[in-house]
User: Fold these one by one.
Assistant:
Number 1:
Amino acid sequence: MGVGDTEAMTGTGGVRRWRGIAALSPGRLVIVGQIGTAALHAHHTVQVIVAAEDMVLADRAGERVVCRAAVVPPDVAHAVVRGASHGALVHLDPESAQGARWAALSRPRDSARGWVCAAAELQLDMLSEWLRGDQHAGEGSSAGQRVGEGRSAKLGGGQLSSPELGEGQLSPAELGEGQRSPDGPSAGEPPHGPLTDEAAAFASWVRSALASESEKEWLRVGTGETVRHPAVAEVLRLLPECLSAGPVRLAELARAVHLSESRLAHVFSAELGIPFRPYLRWLRVQRAAELIAAGQSLTDVAHGAGFADSAHLTRVCRSMFGAPPSEFGSLDWRGALHRPQATPPS
C-alpha cells in the first residue's frame, strides 16, 4: 500500500490519488476504489492488486510492467507508477494459509514480471473486466457512490527511485503486456468460464467489502469461517475484551478454556487458517482502525488497542501495510459485520 505524498499521473495527465472503501479482518485488509500511486516500499504482507484498466508497476531493479493484476510477495520492494480509476487491493498475512500459498507463486519474487505471472496463474487478470462492470453497474447505488466519492488516501512514501514514466517505455513487447480478448464479461457478470479458488475468493472479498450500507458495520471480526472447536470459539469471544488490557498470553487463554497451550495453538491455526500471534496483531490493528474512524487521538487509539504507545502502533502498521495509522482516517471504513460462528450442536 505505502502511504505518503507521491502522486500518479493518469493517461490524460491528471493527478490520481488512492481513495475508496476499506474492510479489515484478522489476516486480511481489502480496499476497493481508485488505485493511485505508491512509491518504492515494502511491507510484511502479501499484496494482491487487480485493476479495471492498465496500471504500471515497478520493482527495485527499475523494471516496469503494464498489467491489470499482480501478486507481490511479503517484504519485497515495489511501486505503483501509474494507477487506475477503479480496482481492488488486498493485503494478506504471510503466516496465514492463504497468504503463504499466494506468496509462493511469485517467481522470481523480486521481479515485477513474476508478480504478474503469479496473478495470471491464479486467473486474477480475468477479474479486471468484472471489476469494471461492477463499477459501472453500481454507479447509481450507494456502494458505487461510496467508491467514487470516498475520502482521499495519499499513497507512496518518498520518491520513486526509477526515472519518470515516458510513453516510449510502455510498449507491450518490452513491458510484457499480454493479449486481451475484446469479449470481456458484461457489466456485473462474472468472468467467462470457471475461476480458480483464489480468484473466486478475491471476488467474494470485494463483494463483501461493498455489501454494507452502514458505517457502524465496517468492522469485520474474525475470518468469517465456521468455528467448530468450542475452545477456539470461546477464545474468540474473550479476545476483544482483552485487547485494551495490554499483553494477551496464549497460556492464560489456554487455562481459561481447559487446554494445554500447545493444543490450543494447534486447533486455533487449524480452525482459522492463521496462527494465534498474527491473528492477535491483526485484531489490534482492527481495533485501532475502528478508534481512528471514531476520531480518537493516536495516543488513545494505541492504548485502546493494546499497543504500548503510538510509536509502537505506527511501527506495526508500517510493517504490515507500509502505511502509518494516521492514514487510516482517510479511508471510508465500511464492510459487513462478520463474526466466526460456532457450529450448533447436532
Note: The first strand starts at residue 8 and ends at 9.
Number 2:
Amino acid sequence: MTSRFARSGLRLTVALVAGVAWGASTATAQTYSKGQNISPAYEGWEQNEDGSYNFLFGYMNRNWLEEVDVPVGPENGFSPGPADRGQPTRFLPRRNRWVFKVRVPADWGDKELVWTLTTQGTTEHAYASLRPDYIVDNVVIASETGALGAGSSDETTRSNTPPTIRLEGDETRRVRVGEPLTLVAVVGDDGLPPPRRRPPPDAEPAPADARYRLSARQLRPPARVTVDKVVGLNLAWFVYRGEGDVRFDPLQVKVWEDTRTGANSPWAPLWRAPEVPEGGRYEVTVTFDRPGTYVLRGRADDGGLYSDQDVTVIVSPATASE
C-alpha cells in the first residue's frame, strides 16, 4: 500500500456520510488529512436486459487529503472467484459512490460477493447480494449522489438519462515519463436535470468590514439530510489504477465528495459547473512522473447520472532503450 496527498489546502470540513451510523458525538468528531483507513461500500444492484445483474460498489476514504494505492491481491480483492473484478487500485479522498460495477450471472441466487480491502492495518469487507432492498435505479443514484432531495423525484428527474462519452482515438496509449499525452473526449447530454435556481444575492449593501463577515446565505444552516450536489454537465479525468503521480492540465473537477467551501467540486458550496466546450469536445493534457501501466477514467456527469470511459496508458522510462 502506498499513499500520496491530493493537491489542495485543508479548510474547515463538515461531511455527512450516507450509510454510516454516527453516534451522538458526530458534532465533535475529528476529521483527518491522512493516516486513516478505507472502507469498501456495497451500493446496491441493478438487473441487465439479459437477466444478469450488476453489483455496484464505492468506498469511503476517511482522509481528506491522502490518496492511497492498493494493488489487486489479498489486500484488495474479491471472493469467490477472481480477485480482480475491475475495482480501483487508487483510492481518492472521502466518499466515492457508484465507482464500479461487477456483473454476475442471472442464476446468482442468494450467494454473496465479498470485496476485501486492507489499509492502514485494518481489514474491512463489503458484502454484495441480491437483497430486494438494495435494488437501485437512476432516481436512487441521483438521490444518493446529492442531485435530488431525499426521497424526491418528478417527471423531469425520472426522464433523465446518463450523458454519453466518446473517446477520440485508441483506448490504449503509450508515452514516456514526462511526455505530454493529449486525451480528447466528446460528451453529449439531454439537458437534464435542469440547473437549480440559486438564491438571490443579499439585497443589503456590503459594509466596510464585509471581508471579515459572512453573508446571510453563508450563515444559513443546511436544509438537507443528504449531501448537496450542484447539477451541471462536466467531464473529469482521474487516476483509477497506477501508482505514480499524474498531472492533468487543465485542473480537473473533483469526482469525490469534497464539501469544503471553495473546492473544485460539485459538492462544494458556491461551486459552478464550467462552461461546456464547443461541440462537447473536452481536451486534457496528461503527464506521468514514473513508468508503469495506468488506467485513467473519464467521468461525464450531469449532476445526477454519469458515464465512464477508461484509457489504459503504458508509460515507459524517459530514456527507454530502443
Note: The chain has three helices and 17 strands.
Number 3:
Amino acid sequence: MFYNMTGILSNRKPACVSALSMQSITAMRDHSTHLKGLLLTFAAVVILSPDALLVRLIHCDVWTLLFWRCLLTGIMQAIFLAACYRSQFVQSFRNTGRAGFLSAAVVAVGSLFFVNSLKHTTAANTLIILAAAPLFSSLLSWLFLRENIARRTWIAIFICFGGILLIFSGSLRSGLLLGDLLALGATLTWAGNIVILRSSKAVNMVPANLFGNLLVVPAALLAGAQPMAVATPDMLFLLLLGGLVLPVSFTMITQGPRYLPAPEVSLILLVETILGPFWVWLVLQESPHAATLLAGALIVGTLAVHTLMSLWALRRPHVVVETPC
C-alpha cells in the first residue's frame, strides 16, 4: 500500500510541477511580448517626434511640402506592402472596401489640416490639440457606433475641451487662431479615422492610409505645388521626413497594439506631445505661450490620468475559481 500511495503521489507531483512550469513559461512569454511592445511603440514615438520640426525647417510653399511629404510616404508604404503581400498587393486594397475609401479621404483631409496648422501656429499648439484625438474618437464612436462612454472619459473630454478653449483664448491675442482651428480640424479627422479603423478591425487598413497620402498629391498640384522648385536643403529634409520618419514610425505604431493594450499605447503616444515642441524649441527657439503651457499641462495631465485609469480597469483581476492540483 505504501508503494502504491507513493506511486500516486509521485504521479501527482510532476503534474503540479508541469502545470507550474507551463504557467511560468506563459508568464515569461507574456512579459517578453509586453517588453517588445513597449520598445516598439516608444521607438516609434521617438522617431516620429521630429515631424513638426522638419515641417517647420522646410521653407518651400505648403502645397509643395504636402506634395513631397505624401508622395514619399506613399511610395515607402507601397514598398512595404508589396514586400508583405507580393502577389496579393492589389487585393489588399480591394479588401479595405468602402471603409478604405472613406478612411483614405479622411487621411488626406487630415494631412492638409495638420501641415497647414504647423505653418499658421506654434508646434506646441498643434500637438497639444492633436493629443485629444483619442477622446474625440470616443465621442464619435458614441455618436456613430453607439458605443458606451465611461464616466471618466466624459469628464476627460470636457476638461480637454476646456484646455483647447484656453489655447484659443491665447491665440486670439497673438493671431494664431487660424492655425489652432486647423489643428482642431486635423484632430477631428484623425479621430474619425480611428472610428473607421475600429469598425473594420478584421481588415488591414494600411493600404487605405497609402491611398489617402496619394490623394493629396494631385490636390497639391492643382493648388499650385511646384515639385521641381525645391532647394537642396529642403529636399534633404523632405527625404528624411517622407522617406524615413513618417513611414517607419507609422508602421511601428500600427504594430504596437498587437503587443500592448490600447490604453498603454495611448499613454506612450503622449510622449510626442512633449518631445515635438521640445525639438522645435531646441532648434528654432520657439517658446509656447503661457496659455499653451497651462492648457498643455491640463490636457496632457488629464489624458495621462485617464489612460492610467483605463489601463488599471483593463488589468483589474477577475475572480477565478481554481481547483487544487
Note: The longest helix spans residues 2-48.
